Amino acid sequence: MATFSFILYRSETDLRPGSEPARALVETARRCNERFGLTGFLHHEEGFFFQWLEGEPVNLAGIMARIERDPRHRNLTYLAQGTEPERQFSRWRMGYSTRSDASVLRWMAEHPVVIRERSEYAAGMLAFLREREAFAH
Ligand SMILES: Cc1cc2nc3c(=O)[nH]c(=O)nc-3n(C[C@H](O)[C@H](O)[C@H](O)COP(=O)(O)O)c2cc1C
Predict the structure, then answer these.
(1) Where is the signal peptide, in residue numbers (predicted)?
(2) Four-CA torsion 58, 119, 96, 94, nearest 10 degrees
(3) Is the overall model pTM greater than 0.70, yes or no?
(4) CA 67 to ligand 1 centroid distance, Å
(5) Looking at ligand 1, which atom is closest to the CA of residue 67?
(6) Each residue's pLDDT tens digit, 2-34
(7) Which domains, from first to last, does the chain contain?
C-alpha cells in the first residue's frame, strides 16, 4: 500500500483573506500540486494560514522547501507531520476557505476539542479542514 507524508502548519500573513493576491497564491498552488500529486486544504483567517499538505514524501519535501521560503508569510510553525496510508483530502489539489466560509476560532469553541497538547490541537484543526472540504464547492 502506498504511504503518503503529510504536514500541518500554521503561519502568519498580511495577505487579506479572499483578496486577489491570496487567490493568485491558491491558483499557483493548485497548478503545482496537480503536477506533483499533492493534495490538501488551506484555511486563511485573521492574519493566519493553516495548511494541510500531503503526497509522495519527496514531492512534499520539495514543495515545503519553497513554501518555507515564501515571503508572503512568516513564523511558519509545524503542528503535525508524519505518514498516512491514505490521503485525507483526495478531492482537492488545494482547497481554500476563509472566515466567511467558517471561522476556525468559532469551530474550536463549539466542538469538544480539548487542547492540552499540540497533537490534540492538530487533530482538531484536521477535523475542521476536513469539514471545510466536505462543504466546499
Ligand atoms: C500559505 C501558502 C501556501 C502555499 N501552498 C502551496 C501549495 O500547496 N503548493 C505549492 O506548490 N505552492 C504553495 N505555495 C506557494 C509556494 O510558496 C511557491 O510560491 C510555489 O510553489 C511556486 O514556486 P516558485 O515561487 O519557486 O516558482 C504556498 C504559499 C503560501 C504562502
Answers:
(1) none
(2) 20
(3) yes
(4) 5
(5) 17
(6) 789 999 999 999 999 999 999 999 999 999 999
(7) 4-135 (3.30.70.100)
